[in-house]
UniProtKB/TrEMBL annotation:
The protein's name: Transcription factor IIIC putative zinc-finger domain-containing protein
InterPro entries in UniProt: GTF3C4, TFIIIC_delta_N, TFIIIC_Znf
GO molecular function, a single term: histone acetyltransferase activity
Biological classification of the source: Eukaryota, Fungi, Dikarya, Ascomycota, Pezizomycotina
Every Transcription factor IIIC 90kDa subunit N-terminal domain range: 19-491
Ranges where the Transcription factor IIIC putative zinc-finger domain occurs: 601-697
PANTHER family: GENERAL TRANSCRIPTION FACTOR 3C POLYPEPTIDE 4, GENERAL TRANSCRIPTION FACTOR 3C POLYPEPTIDE 4 FAMILY
One cellular component (GO) term of this entry: transcription factor TFIIIC complex
Coiled-coil ranges (or none): none
GO BP terms, alphabetized: transcription initiation at RNA polymerase III promoter
Length: 701
């Protein structure tokens, strides 16, 4: 089993642990968020396995500028919260976005602080460097780019109480174009938030194109709004007609929200046909469960720039057919959290919600979930009490409810028809028990100790649990330096890997059996296929096509790809007037070097095609797909995707796994004031992870 990670902090909220699709942890720790990033694998196999694998970054998230958080003047008590205004802005919620939203297709970290501000944080590219890139509350201002102080209802609307990232909405792949659209591979990123005005708002989060709008790196678009009515009783446990009931009814808030899986309701076959999908939304409003649905339609944008595949999104939030019945599914107060369980191609979608003394399980058939059928009798509602005994009969002790002061977990099996089988202790409970036993022995507590669970997170078939350990028969006193919490790992699968690097490696695919030459062949074919009418007046496109053809000559053995390179070189020679007879002739040979160009060729037609050393002005030859060497011996690394020589520092990005060097297209875009040739933008958009291992990029080593 993987070794636990000991953190010098105590979590500040429930669900304080988040595990991103990139393998990074985030832990809510008061005024800080601790981010754990996996270090590169140790090449020295003599050392112990899984020792010091994580680099820990303490990120202070409670500091805001005047532009990020405006001063709020005292107002009436219905609109103004002195608790939020004077709080220390500790972390009360955090979650990673689905992958593909942040820079280098990584995940964005959303952090909700006790001043009711929801911030987005992104890695700056270098390990240990993070920046706040957006404040979601600004989307509720009249001018999000220059937010002004608010009052009254507008102030309540800008206070965010809860949030959750929706599952990525993937557009079905279309057959047009050379590469997959970003919306097909990574999906459209949507965020559901609730505010103090008792509204649920669906937001679309987008990252600005590289090199553009550096002052506003992310855009937040409001798609739809769902107001909660104040007719139903939100706190039925209170005494009817009392002043307490009236106050609770007025102050009811949506404290937890969860978005279910997206199910397609309309799929077009053509590029211009819209795509629509629906999802159920569950909210704990006061102490009652509420449901409604989201319907999102994506339409290919007519204003999309060349090389991009942007979609315009429209949405509406309306009542679901189950909305009237949802509050009656349980008589107990729903305290959260709320989650959806679904595994394709299951015919059932299951909603799980925690009450004060039970686990609520509501299973919907897909036909009812997407409202293609309205048979309410098909809903299966099951409530499993959290009790001291699992089984009960006439001879044994009676089942009774008891408060849970320590860590208690249960595992259920999910099949095609919903939850099945009796609950059982999860494997992480045993791992936590072993750690608690060691804590008890070290301090001679005689068994008077308890473990408190702060959060669970999963990655593939491994579950991570965040917990702390405490004595129970004494007042616990500790200083900050004594604070400790532990992240432990466990799995319900017997064949999981004990190597954390193997666990977090990119998923297995058919390309793993390919050699680097096979991977390069795919990119070469992509670039050579762009030799069309658009390349006639674009010198940068011609330069990329020439580099791909030369790479095919020195690296590829296949007859088809070399013939493709020959045809592209003939077109380039006709377009530019350059003398490419050597390259065309060598397409018939097998893996032979292309010599550097002479001074006369650099002053002749088509000179922009050829690479020249920026140190000595000599020509650069083509000897391999990895290295470039000029006539005078200066050595450079070739980009792993465009195959151009990288001759300047600061222009590169690197694969975080295999360390392959690439040109950083965002840096190039900033140099050219946001403009990139369509082919350059297209190829770096289509191959947005490492070509050779599938790893994510980072700005530096």
């Amino acid at each position: 089993m993987m070794n636990p990670v000991i953190l010098p902090c105590v979590p500040s909220c429930f669900e304080a642990l988040a595990w991103s699709a990139d393998g990074d942890f985030a832990v809510a720790a008061g005024e800080y968020v601790q981010i754990l990033t996996l270090k590169p694998p140790n090449k020295d196999h003599s050392g112990p396995l899984n020792q010091n694998e994580w680099s820990i970054t303490r990120l202070r998230v409670n500091l805001f500028t005047q532009a990020e958080w405006q001063n709020i003047q005292p107002q009436n008590r219905d609109d103004f919260s002195i608790g939020a205004e004077q709080s220390t802005s500790t972390v009360v919620g955090l979650a990673w976005s689905p992958p593909g939203l942040a820079r280098f297709r990584r995940s964005v970290l959303a952090v909700l602080t006790s001043n009711l501000l929801l911030s987005l944080w992104e890695s700056a590219g270098m390990p240990g460097q993070w920046n706040r890139v957006a404040v979601i509350n600004h989307a509720f201002h009249l001018d999000p780019t220059a937010p002004a102080p608010l009052s009254g209802l507008e102030l309540r609307r800008s206070n965010i109480r809860s949030f959750q990232w929706c599952p990525p909405l993937h557009v079905p792949p279309r057959n047009s174009g050379l590469g997959p659209q970003a919306e097909s591979r990574w999906g459209v990123h949507l965020l559901m938030v609730t505010n103090d005005a008792n509204e649920a708002v669906l937001l679309r989060i987008q990252r600005s194109a590289g090199g553009k709008d550096l002052s506003v790196p992310y855009s937040v678009q409001k798609l739809a709004l769902y107001p909660f009515d104040n007719v139903q009783k939100h706190y039925p446990q209170s005494c009817p007609g009392s002043l307490l009931e009236k106050a609770l009814q007025i102050k009811a808030r949506a404290l937890s929200v969860s978005c279910g899986p997206w199910l397609a309701v309309a799929e077009g076959e053509g590029d211009e046909d819209p795509f629509s999908a629906t999802a159920m939304i569950a909210v704990s409003f006061g102490t009652r469960l509420r449901t409604f649905k989201a319907l999102v339609t994506l339409q290919k944008s007519d204003q999309a720039e060349s090389g991009s595949s942007d979609f315009v999104a429209s949405a509406k939030l309306v009542d679901h057919s189950t909305s009237p019945a949802a509050p009656s599914w349980t008589s107990r107060p729903v305290s959260g959290p709320i989650r959806w369980a679904y595994a394709a191609p299951s015919s059932t979608v299951t909603l799980t919600a925690a009450t004060n003394a039970s686990l609520l399980l509501v299973s919907f058939p897909q036909a009812l979930y997407n409202e293609s059928s309205s048979t309410m009798s098909a809903i299966n509602v099951e409530e499993r009490p959290l009790s001291g005994f699992v089984h009960e009969n006439g001879e044994g002790p009676r089942r009774y409810m008891e408060p849970v002061s320590g860590g208690l977990g249960a595992t259920f099996d999910l099949n095609g028809s919903g939850i099945s089988g009796d609950p059982r202790l999860p494997s992480w409970n045993r791992v936590m028990g072993d750690s608690l036993e060691q804590f008890d022995l070290d301090r001679d507590l005689g068994g008077q100790s308890v473990a408190r669970v702060w959060g669970l997170a999963s990655f593939r078939d491994v579950v991570a649990v965040l917990f702390s350990r405490h004595p129970t028969d004494m007042i616990e006193y500790r200083v900050t330096s004594d604070e400790r919490s532990i992240i432990a790992f466990a799995s319900e699968s017997a064949d999981h890997s004990n190597d954390i690097h193997a666990l977090l490696a990119p998923s297995a695919s058919v390309t793993e059996s390919w050699s680097p030459k096979d991977q390069r062949e795919a990119v070469i074919s992509y670039l050579l296929s762009s030799m069309d009418s658009e390349a006639e007046g674009d010198t940068e496109t011609q330069r990329l096509v020439y580099a791909a053809a030369c790479c095919a000559i020195v690296d590829q053995q296949g007859r088809a790809i070399r013939e493709h390179a020959r045809l592209s070189l003939e077109k380039l020679a006709a377009l530019t007037g350059a003398d490419l007879s050597e390259e065309i002739r060598k397409c018939g040979n097998k893996m032979i070097a292309v010599s550097a160009k002479t001074t006369a060729q650099f002053s002749g037609p088509g000179a922009h095609l050829f690479e020249r050393c920026e140190i000595c002005d000599a020509g650069i030859s083509w000897t391999s797909a990895n290295d470039a060497r000029c006539v005078e011996g200066h050595l450079f690394v070739r980009c792993g995707l465009s195959f151009l020589a990288i001759q300047e520092p600061g222009l590169s990005k690197y694969c975080s796994l295999c360390r392959t060097e690439y040109i950083n297209e965002e840096t190039i875009a900033q140099i050219h004031e946001g403009s990139l040739c369509p082919l350059f933008k297209s190829v770096f958009g289509a191959f947005d992870t490492c070509l050779y291992c599938g790893g994510k990029f980072q700005a530096g080593l």
